[in-house]
Amino acid sequence: MKKIITYIFIFLFFVGYSQKHEHKTDTIRKIYVPLKQYKKNYTKQLTKEDTLNFKFKDNDTMVMVNQYLHKGVYVPYEYKDSVFLKYYKKIAFNHDNGKFSFDTKMRYWKKPIKIFFSKNVSKNVQRELMRFASEVSSDIDSLNISRVNKLEDSNYVVYYKGGFEYEPRMHNYKNSSFYVYWNGKNQLYRNTIRINTDKEFSEILIINEVKKLFFQSLGRFKLIDEFECENYFADCHSKNKNFSKLDLEILKYHYSYGICKGTDLLTFEEQHAQAKETLKLHNHKVNFIHTE
Amino acid sequence: MRKLLFSITLLITLSNFGQSKGDSNTSDEKVVFVKKNSRHLINKNSELLILENNDTLILTKRYIPKFSYPKFSSKKEKNRFKFRYSYIAFGSFNNKYSKNNFPIRQWNVPIKVYIDKSFSKENSIRIENFIKSFSVLEIPNLEIELVKNKNTANYYITTTNEILKVLDEKKLDQYSDERIKNRYKDNANYYLKNDANFNIYSCVLKVNPSTFIDKNNIIKKVKIRFFGSLGRFYPTMYQKGSLLDTKYINNDTISTFDINVLKSHYNYIYPYKVDFNLFKIIEKK
After folding, report:
1. Residues B190, B233: contact at Cβ < 8 Å?
2. Which chain A residues are closer than 8 Å to B108 by Cβ?
3. CB spacing of A227 vs B34 below 8 angstroms
4. Do A228 and B34 touch (CB under 8 A)?
5. Is residue B163 within 8 Å of B185, Cβ to Cβ?
6. Burial letters for A196-230: b for 16+ Cβ neighbours within 10 Å, e otherwise?
7. Taking CB atoms and an 8 Å cutoff, what residues of chain B touch A11?
8. Positions of chain B with pLDDT under 70
9. Residue A246 is nearest to which of B33, B110, B271, comparing CB atoms?
10. I need a labelling partner for B221 at 20 to 30 A (CA). Which of A2, A149, A206, B56 fits?
11. Among B48, B62, B151, which would you mutate to test the A interface (most chain A Cβ atoms within 10 Å of its Cβ)?
12. Domains parsed from chain A with CATH numbers
């Protein structure tokens, strides 16, 4: 009998613990900002009542506020594990001449991509590329791709060797290639794909090449050898190449505003380390503020 | 009764723990990558992770094929073949003499050959018959077919008036004068496209008919170059009757030696870079 009572006691203890645990999730939210930042962003004058709620942290006076104010769009930090990030970094931070540097930047399209095809690009190639572009961008809100009929309306040109050289810097390239421009914020704003039809002599080869180059140009990506060749982020050829779930997940992350855009590798590393630490230690919600 | 009470207690304890973990911010993490067939793994015998159902990790070992040469009547004959194949595939009998240590090149897609209309009808038919002769050889992992629509081809055989250079002009200082004299220019050559794993996916074979004194040699040269392009094979001086023999005499059939070269070469399509050193490890497996 004594033992039964003991078990009932244990049972009640755990039920009690469970309720207590649930109750604990109804937290009171208090937001503190450093005094310096308060003076910069808040118009309301500090009252005596405010000073009573002052707190001190790391030699800073913290002011309790009702709402955190900062100009821009708040996007929750998108958590990804270290393994995912390891491969993402290899792809997105395309080091010049393959030489590793923390200064290497990630690049992305901010404005919609508007593709113009030169006259000698066959209808079939145009159709296939636009179909692929639509497949790639359909699940990514911040990546918009369309086709335009006038060169002046475009920021992306596809052409063949032998016709008008839309990008003079590529006129003597032996292989099919792309040439992309970016601004000071590492936003890509113009690209040209040049197909060398001496090497890509058939439509099937042109379609494969143009898709590969187009995909790379979406972030001046580095293709890597760790993935199976069926993925577009893999640097090898496959007859079964397709826009895989893995490709989508990486591209989606690249265009997600749950990470900082256009940063260098060092900043990227630091921000992730900080965000993860905050999540781990305090279980706080972490936001990225996009001021543009 | 006691056991029942104990079980209830245990169940409640575990369910509490489960909820608490499920509420944490890190519970929805997904590993969404595949690391498979990486050339870096082969010597480390590492395990790798692959994606399944979006969030399941599976550990699996990398596949290293068991290499097998075709059957020979004697061990001596087999060893002789191994020695020669090694040279044909890598340009070296021994790693000591291989300066560049180029990896094996293999086609990893079916070869679809289009013959340009610029060839005479007679030559075109002779080339077609040669290409067709591969289909009866039944080489595993190697498919060769003729196509009538250029737009579906990945192998283009054509004529040209340009001077075909065999050696890279930028690297001429690396070659002896004799080699430059003998091999700098040729009347036919092939241009392969391969990926980072050295798997070939397209080729253009060009012939300059105006450079042939004996026009009968055009077909002979196309045959030699076509066979070489099936793996960027190195020519040899020691195998009479082979399309890889530097003194090849035109023959209507493909020699047994050449068939064995293809069978060995296409034993398995490596989805990673295989250089001479790695090949020796695979060969011994």
Report:
1. no
2. 237-239
3. yes
4. yes
5. yes
6. beebbbbbbbbbbbbbbbbbbbbbbbbbbbbbbbb
7. 5, 8-9, 12
8. 1-64, 93-101, 166-172, 175, 178-185, 285
9. B33
10. A206
11. B151
12. 25-69 (no CATH), 71-107+223-292 (no CATH), 108-218 (3.40.390)
Asked if CATH classification 3.40.390.10 holds for the domain at B106-254, the reply, yes or no, is yes
Interacting residues of A190 by C-beta distance below 8 A, sequence separation 6+: A155, A156, A180, A181
Mean pLDDT value of segment A194-214: 96
Across the interface, do A21 and B156 touch by the CB < 8 Å criterion?
no
Residues A4, B5: C-beta atoms closer than 8 Å: yes
Instruction: Kindly indicate the confidence band of residue A161, based on its pLDDT and cuts at 50, 70 and 90.
Output: very high
Q: Is A239 in CB contact (< 8 Å) with chain B?
A: yes
Task: Report the C-alpha gap between A201 and A207 in whole angstroms.
Answer: 11
Indicate the residue of B24, B153, B196 with minimum beta-carbon distance to A225.
Answer: B196
Is B26 in contact with A7 (Cβ distance < 8 A)? no
Contacts of A272 (CB under 8 A, 6+ apart): A85
Measured between beta carbons, the chain B residues lying within 8 angstroms of A283 are 24-25
**How confident is the model at residue A75, as a pLDDT?**
63
H-helix segments, chain A: 2-24, 35-41, 48-52, 82-92, 123-137, 203-217, 245-254, 265-282
Say yes or no: A15 contacts chain B, CB-CB below 8 A: yes
Supply the Cα-derived Rg of chain B in whole angstroms.
27
Stretch 87-146 of chain A: residues touching chain B, C-beta under 8 Å: 87
Q: Residue A170 in 3-state DSSP?
A: helix
**Rounded to a whole number, what is the distance in Å from the CA of B201 to chain A's nearest CA?**
7
Q: Do A245 and B54 touch (CB under 8 A)?
A: yes
The torsion of the CA quartet A88, A89, A90, A92, rounded to 10 degrees, works out to 80
Count of Cβ atoms closer than 10 Å to residue A151 Cβ: 12
The beta strand positions in A97-215, using DSSP E, are 108-109, 113-117, 145-147, 156-160, 177-182, 187-195
Two structure tokens written together for B130:
């040669």
ipTM > 0.90 (yes/no): no
Cβ-based neighbours of B104, under 8 Å, separated by 6 or more: B89, B90, B198, B231, B265, B270, B274, B275, B279
Exposed/middle/buried for residue A287 (C-beta within 10 Å: 0-12, 13-18, 19+)? middle
Tell me the residue type at A118.
S
Cβ pairs A/B, distance under 8 A:
127
Contact B154, B109 (CB under 8 A): yes
Q: What are the structural domain ranges in chain B?
A: 26-63, 106-254
Please report where in the chains the tokens 């595993």 appear, as a residue. B140
Over residues B211-252, the pLDDT tens digits come to 888 888 899 999 999 999 999 999 888 788 899 998 888 888
- Give the angle subtended at the CA of A153 by the CAs of A214 and A292, to the nearest 5°: 75
Q: What's the count of helices (H) and strands (E) in chain A, helices before strands? A: 8, 11
Tokens read off for A183: 């601004």
DSSP reduced 3-state for A183: coil
One-letter amino acid at B62 equals R
> What's this model's pTM, rounded to 2 decimal places?
0.74
Distance CA A272, CA A261 (A): 13
